[in-house]
Design brief:
The chain has 416 residues and is an alpha/beta fold. It has seven helices and 25 strands. A hairpin with a 4-residue loop joins strand 15 and strand 16.
Length: 416
């Protein structure tokens, strides 16, 4: 009996357990998945918690119920990987593996920025990339009387790069509904030279920021948070004052990756961007946020990766050449407030374009255009996540690689 070991039971790890449970012969392979946490969070829902759109119960469930019965589920802390001996050390035991899948994700690291976790942390400074942070921010917003709201990204890459923009748009809508938009000055601060990583998408998003009277500060490389002045400061001593700072701290891979010596400076594992095989060890594969591939760190990307990686695991067990198939496909809704959303579809090479999705000319979803239908698509994704994605069920009519049907290539990349 051979052992396939999956580290991490988040989105990517749980999907791989479900995919492979149906594909690997049970008489030959034992699948084991390890994660120290009992609760599985629907992380896209953290965006909606601060605005009381979702409740706590809508974004969390017991993780065990999504792991197939035939998969051995161990709830223990991962210490480190020993790739030379094909072993993983947990808190009180060591596991052998023939194939290892690393799906340990990424986490915020507020301690990487001076002053961020200072006296104002969770008082006037919040994140919404954690369950605890999103709940604390919700409680703050319920009673906040207005002032300077700064929405800030520390550095790239981050999980779900559109989420901070969505937060700014939803905040605009939230304060309008409360009848206090005139009491709130919203500023969006980014280390990028525009609103988003993709130039064509930046053009559409800049228009929305202007329309909603949200200021944007670009090329801001934060040096520290000055808690006494209540300001963020960059390396050329530029200061942006705040009354309420909503920040996305540095994102880093799991500390177990650093202890194992497998990661880069941010603990992300160097990974072949088309096969998802670890560059340093042939029998280690990496998926989701744990990789360093230049794709968006989003749930939709992990979903598309899982389909290619499943095929490649099967090919590897049979001694065949891996498919260089994954194209960086990302498909993301961007909430723009007032019950509307954009939809963007892109990959490693192709910028977001206009058109329809998933069917050419029919849609019903429109790309790079605000619509109520896109908003409902975003909200429907929560049901799809719990009932299809995690269980390894493909979404009908949505392929793992980017389709060019229904796309209009009318935007040049130098348009900003």
């Amino acid at each position: 009996m051979k052992n396939l070991l999956i580290l991490g039971a988040g989105t990517a790890g749980t999907m791989m357990a479900n995919h492979l449970d149906n594909k690997l012969p049970k008489k030959d392979w034992q699948i084991t998945i390890v994660d120290q946490y009992k609760t599985h969070y629907y992380q896209p829902g953290f965006l909606f918690l601060p605005f009381d759109t979702y409740t706590e119960d809508q974004v969390k469930k017991e993780g065990k119920k999504f792991i197939p019965n035939g998969v051995n589920y161990i709830q223990k802390k991962i210490d480190r990987i020993f790739p030379e001996s094909n072993q993983v050390k947990l808190e009180d035991e060591t596991l052998d593996y023939d194939i290892l899948i690393v799906a340990t994700g990424s986490k915020i690291a507020p301690d990487e920025t001076d002053g961020l976790r200072g006296p104002l942390w969770r008082k006037d400074i919040f994140d919404f990339y954690t369950y605890e942070g999103a709940l604390a921010l919700r409680n703050k917003l319920r009673d906040w009387e207005g002032g300077k709201l700064v929405v800030h990204i520390t550095e790239m890459p981050i999980k779900c790069p559109v989420a901070p923009l969505e937060f700014a748009f939803l905040a605009d809508s939230y304060f309008k509904k409360k009848g206090m938009r005139d009491k709130v000055e919203i500023t969006y601060v980014t280390p990028l030279d525009g609103a988003f990583t993709k130039p064509t998408c930046t053009k559409a998003l800049n228009y929305l920021l202007e329309e909603k009277q949200i200021k944007i500060e670009t090329d801001f490389a934060i040096m520290e948070v000055d808690n006494k002045k209540k300001a963020i400061v960059d390396y050329i001593d530029k200061e942006i004052p705040f009354d309420l700072l909503v920040t996305v701290p540095t994102n880093m891979g799991d500390e177990a990756i650093e202890r194992s010596g497998l990661g880069d400076d941010l603990n992300f594992i160097p990974t072949h961007k088309h096969t998802l095989q670890c560059k340093a060890h042939d029998n280690i594969f990496v998926i989701g946020d744990a990789t360093n591939v230049p794709a968006s760190k989003a749930g939709s990307v992990a979903h598309f990766q899982a389909e290619t990686l499943t095929d490649n695991i099967i090919l590897y067990t049979k001694g065949f050449k891996l498919k260089q198939e994954f194209d960086g496909h990302a498909n993301c809704f961007i909430e723009t407030g007032e019950n509307k959303a954009l939809l963007i579809d892109f990959n490693y090479e192709q910028e977001p374009v206009h058109g329809t999705f998933p069917f050419a000319k029919i849609g019903p979803l429109k790309l790079l255009k605000e619509s109520i239908f896109n908003h409902w698509g975003k909200l429907a994704f929560r049901w799809i996540y719990w009932n299809m994605l995690l269980r390894g069920i493909s979404i009908p009519f949505v392929g793992r690689n980017m389709s060019f049907k229904g796309k209009i290539f009318d935007i040049k990349t130098d348009n900003k």
